[in-house]
Specification:
By secondary structure, the protein is mostly helical. It is 44% helix and 10% strand. A three-stranded antiparallel sheet has the order 1-3-2, with helices on one face. Helix 1 crosses helix 2.
Length: 171
């Protein structure tokens, strides 16, 4: 029996199929990018959030050029379905990310959606947003198996390194 990971082999697919047609996929992504610019934090299925992330970051890269750049204005006009957000993109978000070279979004996995599909869910947010930070699960707690084994190893090595005094000798 051969075990393989189906997601690792793309067979010429460049992006995920999110909908029945390419137009529906683009409309979905445009609506997600618009919602992210408006709310700065968004809960969506992992595949949609991950696919939308690159488009949102590219839009912010274009916005950093300024509102006088024709290409940046065309990109903002295309990707933002609510035209009142163009002002927010150029006057609020672009100055916030001006000193940063990239990676404007944070993608965190949250528990799966309840219901029939149990879809893998994620929260995507713009860095520096006004919301309180999400609690990230800490992998380096004392309760993990690896840290318990390391703790036991350290204690054993400490005991062996301590000088062994013969019985009955005063300290």
């Amino acid at each position: 029996m051969r075990l393989s990971l189906a997601a690792a082999i793309s067979h010429g697919r460049l992006y995920r199929r999110l909908g029945p047609s390419p137009r529906a996929r683009l409309d979905l992504l445009r609506n997600l990018v618009t919602a992210l610019v408006r709310h700065e934090r968004l809960e969506a299925p992992w595949a949609r959030a991950d696919e939308m992330r690159g488009y949102a970051e590219r839009l912010i890269d274009y916005a950093k050029r300024g509102d006088t750049d024709e290409r940046a204005m065309r990109m903002a006009n295309f990707w933002l379905t609510e035209k009142d957000l163009i002002h927010k993109l150029f006057k609020v978000l672009a100055p916030r990310f001006q000193p940063h070279p990239g990676s404007y979004t944070r993608l965190l996995q949250i528990p799966n959606r309840d219901g029939t599909d149990r879809a893998k869910m994620a929260v995507i947010e713009l860095k520096g947003n006004p919301y309180p930070p999400l609690v990230r699960p800490r992998r380096d707690s004392d309760k993990t198996l690896l840290n318990q084994l390391l703790k036991g190893y350290r204690e054993d090595s400490r005991r062996q390194a301590a000088p062994q005094l013969p019985e009955g000798t005063p300290l």
